[in-house]
Write a structure and sequence with these properties.
elongated; mainly alpha; MetI-like fold; transmembrane; transmembrane helix; dipeptide transmembrane transporter activity; MetI-like
């Protein structure tokens, strides 16, 4: 039986307007990652520290190593963060030390992320003997003690500087990210769109770069942020214990001299509090950025606390992630 053309036209779905594909809605989806308060706050604070790392040594009011007659002076108009036992300006030391901290963190994060992507995605997609071999390599690097290795290399090559330490941290901290990316790739390589690309004759490199890696962007970003946090904490820890492979000043060096000269016993709280606060603020910013990435990836976390239903008494209840709501019991 023939169907009238009018009925077919009425049953056919209406085409989407062009603005719904390339208009404001598409732009909002593109920047949805920045809509969360955690990610935006973390990016703003991180950008502030990056700017300080670039211009910090230039805007420092004093030479961080220059001595003066103002010994252990409290914060004042001349010395905003006070002075050390040698009359050195603490504010200038914090500004100059920001560059070393950010350089080591970002460099180690880039090195570790590149290695994690290469090993993790390749081993997960190829499988078989090559995949198992790369997986075994990542297992070996999982058990390498990074901090003792950095201390040994820093002692043997004292002129290596921050770049050497950053590279060593990156070379010893990529295995965790590789394991996560391998597990995600094992899940993605059997998806329908990957099988369709393979069946159409797409080369392996194109499938990895255009079909798999775009779906791992958030995981890669989270791995990068986690590596930066680890690298920053490692550098500060090693500088605090006196490893000599670092540049003249960073936040860990400030804490090292404050501890060795018993700043707390002398009541010179300004000697170690600014560097400690800088470490805490930077760590908080990186953690907020990591939380924002997790919420962007997980729809459940993104909608946590925003869904509302009515219970048996008619009151509005906000659903939270991790809890199963009970709307009411049946009366007998």
């Amino acid at each position: 039986m023939a169907v009238p053309a009018a009925d077919l036209k009425a049953a056919a779905p209406e085409p989407l307007p062009p603005d719904s594909i390339t208009g404001p809605a598409a732009r909002r989806r593109r920047f949805r990652f920045l809509s969360g308060g955690k990610a935006l706050t973390g990016l703003i604070v991180l950008a502030f520290f990056v700017v300080l790392a670039v211009i910090g040594p230039w805007i420092a009011p004093y030479d961080p190593s220059a001595r003066s007659d103002d010994l252990i002076e409290a914060p004042s108009g001349r010395h905003w963060f006070g002075t050390t036992h040698l009359g050195q300006d603490v504010f200038s030391q914090v500004l100059a030390g920001t560059r070393s901290v950010m350089l080591v963190g970002v460099t180690a994060g880039v090195v570790a992320t590149i290695l994690a992507v290469l090993v993790g995605v390749t081993s997960g997609y190829l499988g078989g003997t090559p995949g198992e071999g790369l997986s075994a390599l990542s297992n070996v690097f999982l058990v390498i003690p990074a901090l003792p290795l950095i201390i040994i290399i820093g002692t043997a090559l004292p002129s290596g500087g921050d770049t050497l330490v950053a590279v060593v941290i990156g070379l010893t901290s990529w295995a965790w990210g590789a394991r996560v990316l391998r597990a995600q790739t094992l899940s993605l390589r059997r998806r329908d769109y990957v099988e369709a690309a393979r069946a159409s004759g797409e080369p392996t490199w194109r499938i990895i770069f255009f079909e798999i890696l775009p779906n791992l962007t958030a995981v890669i970003a989270s791995s990068f942020v986690g590596t930066v946090v680890f690298a920053v904490m490692s550098e500060i820890t090693l500088a605090f214990v006196g490893v000599s492979a670092f540049s003249d000043w960073n936040w860990g060096t400030i804490l090292f001299w404050a501890q060795s000269q018993q700043a707390l016993a002398q009541g010179a709280w300004w000697w170690f509090v600014p560097a400690g606060l800088a470490i805490a603020v930077l760590g908080t910013a990186l953690s907020l950025l990591n939380f924002g990435i997790d919420e962007f990836v997980s729809p459940r976390l993104r909608s946590a606390g925003t869904t509302r239903v009515k219970n048996a008494e008619g009151k509005t209840v906000r659903l939270r992630a991790g809890f199963t709501p009970v709307l009411g019991r049946e009366k007998r």
